[in-house]
């Protein structure tokens, strides 16, 4: 797995529990979402009921699961965690919904990947606090309506636009999570370093933050790798130099690009003079699957303003030439 992948791996999950902020005050950045959510939760607490359903949209690793757990903690409610792909049949969802306690928080990750029948069951549960449990099969099957206690659904999706509008509209509040600024990631890193009992100075944290792709999960992962390096190759203290040398070993460059990202960019510049070139041709040139280039490498390169997708193919930007230290061909020249 890539060090700069924003999705969680097994290694992350083991430490994430320890690093998760426990309340809104501890949660770094995302000022707007935090302020809005704070109001939603305070109001619900004053009324003494379950909080409104909350939809969180944003890239993996930005803190959606963390916020869901904070919602539960702030409401002093239990939380159940599952995801769209884990719910194969509407019956799976019915089983979860019908076992919810009053006020419980249900976190549904990757909401956009839920099956259609489950989605329709969810509409009814969110709006009318009711599910129809189907008993029996074939013509003799009957739907038995079951009342649910008030609960709070926290749904997460990479993009709110992926959800069917009827589902989106049933959330009382939608929070859009943004990528984090370097200064915010530095705060995340100092906090994590403290919890992991690692010594990092300001310049060391800044160095790691700059390579973390705006994503706390990646920042925490890079911190762990640099900690290894500092422990084995130095005195354990993470300075700017140690962070830079450590991440060089893992081929994460000063802007957060890894080997694959640089291979794609390098091929585009050196073999195709910066493009335009078709995706398939580019993929063959770097010896990767088309999907890998398109889904794994390109989104970050596009976001960083290094690569553009045009109708005629992939094109490198002037920033791409500068980043790899290459000179673009002169217009009119060979
Ligand atoms: P998502 O559910 O969006 O994929 P997570 O909530 O699992 O992301 O967060 C990934 C990791 O990043 C966790 O270890 C979490 O502690 C950390 N993290 C995310 N957001 C923040 C934040 N605002 N402040 C501090 N740590 C954060």
UniProtKB/TrEMBL annotation:
Enzyme Commission code(s) on record: 3.6.4.-
Region (Head domain (RuvB-H)): 254-334
Domain of life according to the entry: Bacteria
Region (Small ATPAse domain (RuvB-S)): 181-251
Binding annotation for ATP: 19-20, 61, 64-66, 170, 180, 217
Matching CDD domains: AAA
Annotated AAA+ ATPase domain residues: 50-183
HAMAP family named among the record's database cross-references: DNA_HJ_migration_RuvB
NCBIfam families: PRK00080.1, ruvB
Designated name of the protein: Holliday junction branch migration complex subunit RuvB
Organism expressing this protein natively: Streptomyces synnematoformans
């Amino acid at each position: 797995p890539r060090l700069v992948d924003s999705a969680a791996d097994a290694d992350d999950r083991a430490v994430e529990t320890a690093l998760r902020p426990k309340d809104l005050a501890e949660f770094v950045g995302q000022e707007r979402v935090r302020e809005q959510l704070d109001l939603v939760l305070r109001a619900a607490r004053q009324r003494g009921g379950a909080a409104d359903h909350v939809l969180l949209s944003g890239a993996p690793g930005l803190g959606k699961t963390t916020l869901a757990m904070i919602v539960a903690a702030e409401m002093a409610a239990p939380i159940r965690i599952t995801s769209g792909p884990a719910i194969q049949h509407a019956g799976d969802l019915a089983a979860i919904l019908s076992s919810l306690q009053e006020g419980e928080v249900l976190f549904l990750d990757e909401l956009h990947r839920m099956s259609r029948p489950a989605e329709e069951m969810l509409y009814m549960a969110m709006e009318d606090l009711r599910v129809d449990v189907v008993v029996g099969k074939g013509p003799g099957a009957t739907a038995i309506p079951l009342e649910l206690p008030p609960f709070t659904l926290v749904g997460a999706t990479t993009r709110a636009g992926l959800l069917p509008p009827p589902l989106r509209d049933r959330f009382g509040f939608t929070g859009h999570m943004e990528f984090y600024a370097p200064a915010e990631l530095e705060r995340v890193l100092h906090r994590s370093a403290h919890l992991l009992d690692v010594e990092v100075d300001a310049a060391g944290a800044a160095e790691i933050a700059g390579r973390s792709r705006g994503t706390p999960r990646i920042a925490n992962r890079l911190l762990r790798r640099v900690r290894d390096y500092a422990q084995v190759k130095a005195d354990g203290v993470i300075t700017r130099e140690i962070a830079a040398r450590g991440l060089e070993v893992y081929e994460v460059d000063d802007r957060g690009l890894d080997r694959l990202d640089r291979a794609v960019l390098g091929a585009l510049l050196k073999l195709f003079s910066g493009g335009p070139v078709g995706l398939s041709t580019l993929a063959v040139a770097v010896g990767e699957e088309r999907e890998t280039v398109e889904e794994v490498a390109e989104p970050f390169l596009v976001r960083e303003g290094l690569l553009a997708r045009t109708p005629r193919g992939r094109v490198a930007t002037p920033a791409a030439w500068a980043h790899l230290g290459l000179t673009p061909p002169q217009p009119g020249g060979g």
